[in-house]
Amino acid sequence: MALLASSTSGIFSSCGSLWMGGDTFEVPLELFAVNRRRLAKRLSRIVDGRPFVLLQGGSELPFYDTDLTYHVFRQESFFMWTFGVIESGCYGAVDVISGSAYLFIPRISDKYQIVWMGVRTLEDFSGRYNIRNVHYCDEMEKVLHNAHPSVLLTLKGVNSDSGLPVNEAKFPGIEKFSVDNTILYEEIADLRVFKTDLEISVLKYVTEISSEGHRKVMRYVKGGNKFEYQCESEFLHHCYSVGGCRQVAYTSICASARNTAILQYGHADSPNDKMIESDDLCLFDMGASYFGFCSSVGCCFPASGKFTADQKLIYEAVLAASCAVFKACKPGVKWVDIHILGNQVLLGELVKAKLLKGDPEAMTSVGLGAIFQPHGIGHFLGLDVHDVGGYLSSQPPRRGEPRGIDKLRTARVLQERMVLCIEPACYFIDVLLDEALKDAVLSKFLIPEAIARFRGFGGVRIVDVIAITKNGAVNFTKVPRTVKDIEKWMAGKDDKKYK
Ligand code: GLY
Ligand code: MN
């Protein structure tokens, strides 16, 4: 049972964890203390003196001009990684030499705020987060001055997926300190790539909850006559009600029929609002988020519970790519080569299926893979679903050619403790097929009549969460994957198989 550390919140047990109670997972605060120690150790080797790391946590975003905020506040990921603090408006510092952590929280003195939001004292935060040095944000200058840092290391960098900058810490009085923003980003982003045992156990949990949600939805949708958003709702309910996951890692993609060929379906213009017919193919790509730790699982199956010949053909082609990719994932292998392998296996299957003709290696070298799978083979996963560290200046090469490789979110060499999504896919997207048919090089591999048959088919994507181990990889995803297993599951069998 959760023992309450304060009268206002039940999510913290007495033994120092982030926890939603019941059978949900206890995330030990030690996880974040370990991260701070890793960071301090790394920085102490490269920065002289007595440097302090200074990070600014996330702030509530107002909902346009209103006095409401976006539901629900989600902590900034670098700050979460370092401190595990879920409240908004905070700052944190780490003394690199002693390893001591400092937390700065907003001072809530306004009566209106106290009445509407409640009040948290310094002692509340100190007890919850096992951090002795907790002060108000308006005391930062004084507290940091008294601590005598030789330099404040702040976070300046650009996310290689979005191209957006991180929010560098600023506070009134910072100009009185020596500040260096050139070191921290690369170091902390690189540390975030390699997950500790504690982090891996949370990512495993959130993937198991997501897998359970998918399995539930597969049975729920059987026979069709459900709206896509009803499937989304079943998933959200499972993840929150059973798993304690108040948020999802990204907007749920619940696509059916032609919509399965829209890669990021589910956004505001296409809000999972189609009625699923009994003969539709479904592609559901959904992942829960537990205290910021993200999962991403993608399942593809027929609403009828029984694959048609064409659905089976394309599904098994993607599954062959998924199996080959998983088998190849181990330390020392280049992610670019994994992507190329996935493309080659898929294209080889499409040759066997008589949609293409020629040599899959030659096809891949001219970028035909990107016509059928116009995204990379996957990405890092952690506190962000597209986790950081894919391209750091210390980690060449940059995004490259040919077509397809340029979409990769990382080109790093796989190493133990990396956690990734693998997501091979095959879509029939008119605009890309038209482009390929007009292209002198690509068109010679296509069999136009066969391609024509699959226009409007949609697409298949299979998304698994894996962790790289010493000699290979483990798969945390627990959903039926083969055609036979999917059909059995949807028929109400194999209840114990995926526990
Ligand atoms: N699976 C969602 C994404 O990678 O964007
Ligand atoms: Mn993904």
Key features?
499 residues, alpha+beta, Creatine Amidinohydrolase, Chain A, domain 1, six-stranded mixed beta sheet, four-stranded antiparallel beta sheet, 15 helices, disordered N terminus, binds manganese (II) ion, manganese ion binding, hydrolase, Aminopep_P_N
Gist?
The protein has 499 residues and is α+β, with helices and mostly antiparallel strands. The chain has 15 helices and 23 strands.
What does the model show?
The N terminus is likely disordered. The chain contains 15 helices and 23 strands. It has a six-stranded mixed β-sheet, covered by helices on one side. A four-stranded antiparallel β-sheet has the order 18-19-22-23, sandwiched between helices. The protein has a three-stranded antiparallel β-sheet with strand order 1-2-3, with helices on one face. The longest helix is centred in the middle third of the chain and has 24 residues. Helix 1 crosses helix 2, helix 1 packs across helix 6 and helix 7 packs across helix 8. It has two domains: 166 residues, Creatine Amidinohydrolase, Chain A, domain 1 (3-Layer(aba) Sandwich), CATH 3.40.350.10; 302 residues, Creatine Amidinohydrolase (Alpha-Beta Complex). The chain is globular and about 75 Å long. The chain has 499 residues and is of the alpha+beta class. The two termini are 23 Å apart.
